[in-house]
Design goal:
Elements: H1 2-16, E1 29-33, E2 38-44, E3 50-57, E4 67-71, E5 80-85, H2 94-110, H3 112-117, H4 120-125, H5 130-133, H6 141-155
Parallel strand pairs: 1-5
Antiparallel strand pairs: 1-2, 2-3, 4-5
Length: 168
């Protein structure tokens, strides 16, 4: 079943890959089964199709439901993977999550380490798990205000009101 679902991702990727460099390639996928705390790793075969590679026990406790991208010990932490719990396939729009996480894999390859090394939170927590243990502050006033302004600019179709937010 998982390979069938990944074939759908491959097909969709062939249609999306030219939209942006972050979508130009596929990345490894690790499917988790939370009870067993394991990772079923799928990677690309030489012809570009996903194939089952191995099963690994995660080196940290996995949450029951996970949607993330991060480097795995299996790849000596040098290659980022889309890590999702098996329930992802119950979601009608699961492909959105996969491609979202692939963008994070692209970031890991291209710029993430440089950006991370300058972040205060990385220095403060000194843990690769900080993102999982500290959820995004969707309720904080700063985020709510800025996101609301961006949302309003999109609604009125005024890109000039959005430009400055990329530097906030």
């Amino acid at each position: 079943m998982i390979l069938e679902e990944l074939r759908k991702i491959e097909k969709l990727h062939s249609e999306l890959k030219d939209l942006h460099p972050s979508l130009s390639k596929l990345y490894p996928v690790a499917i988790t089964e939370p009870i067993e705390n394991n990772l079923h790793i799928y990677d690309l075969a030489p012809l570009g199709n996903y194939e089952y590679i191995t099963e690994e026990i995660a080196d940290f406790p996995l949450p029951d439901k996970i949607r993330a991208a991060f480097p795995l010990e299996f790849y000596e932490y040098k290659k980022s993977c889309c890590v999702v719990s098996v329930d992802i396939f119950e979601e009608e729009d699961s492909f959105v999550t996969f491609f979202h996480e692939f963008v994070h894999c692209y970031q890991f390859e291209t710029c993430e380490q440089k950006i991370r090394s300058s972040l205060y939170i990385i220095k403060e927590y000194d843990s690769p798990m900080w993102e999982i243990n500290h959820p995004f502050p969707y309720e904080e006033d700063f985020f709510v205000n800025v996101f609301g302004q961006i949302e309003n600019a999109v609604k009125i179709n005024d890109p000039t009101k959005i430009v400055g937010f990329s530097r906030v």
